[in-house]
Amino acid sequence: MTLLVAITGGIGSGKSTFSNEVKKRGFKLLDSDQEVSKLYKKPSKNFLDFLRSIKLGNSIDGKKINKKVIFEKIFDDSKTREKLEKYIHKTVRESREKFLKKEKRNKTKVVFMDIPLLFENKLNKNFDLIISIISSKKIRLKRLKKSKNIKTKTFNKITKIQTSDIERKKNSDIVILNNYNMNNYLNKINQVLDLITT
99-110, pLDDT tens digit by residue? Predict the structure, then answer.
């Protein structure tokens, strides 16, 4: 039987670092953010038509999409955001199901899925084990300002629509606190991976 493990956490909490360690150790992982990134980098005609249908056509320049235009629109328009999220979640779900089918067929013992909006989309029931990465908002904002040049206002808009860390703690099997240095965090990650995979 294949053990299904979900990795989740708020923006800037350290999910990508965890996922990178999973891949370094040769375990199978599907990264939801990467699947979304593929959708925007090489948009299909269907996706471009969809954006036009929900009045986000001004984000399209030829066959390229300006995500900044979309971002500014959706956080002030919940209806448009919900329509876009529904489309993206359907696409990512299809990728996830295809990935899982393949790994089950190959009898892979453990598969990991990095899903930022796990609880928001009520996907937690689909997994055997849930790992949440928790980090203080102050530290997360500091990281994001440095790595992605995210402004405080933008950060607050994103965290406002994400599940709280209180809910994550309550509904997770394993919680990793990432408020210290990288070595401390990497040690915690590898202890958890050892526990799960040996």
Answer: 999 999 999 999
